[in-house]
Sequence to fold (163 residues):
Amino acid sequence: MVRPRPRSGSKYATPEGERRLRLELDALWRVERPAVTRAVAEAAAMGDRSENAEYIYGKRRLREIDRRVRFLRERLDGLQVVRDPPPDRGRVFFGAWVTVEDEQGSDRRHRIVGPDEFDREAGYVSMDSPLGRALLGRRMHDEIEVRLPGGVQRLTVTAIEYE
Fold:
């Protein structure tokens, strides 16, 4: 019996996110895979493959690369790149930079991005995350509650910007 593939998140990306995925695919396919293939061929030429660590780990790395390349190609085929800001810039939509204030008065700035782009240090939050879902569609001064593993967090939207 064939199992359905797990859902891999929303199919949206910023132009920067699409570019990063394409660069990763290109690097894996044109640089890393040929290098690993050469290393595996050299290791295979040494003789007994059953106890040849370079050969075994090289083959494993090739499978990992091929799996990632397959994922990236499928992902990029169905990707919808959002290039233009929405007509209503007073609401939070995909690609928005949103500043929120917590109950202690601390501000944090986040950008709503696709699931392939999230980066905690850069402030990028996936639109599929609890915070991303809670922010989408909100306006200035809206108060939201986000359920996180550590408990409920109350936030107020203090700024919405689009690049």
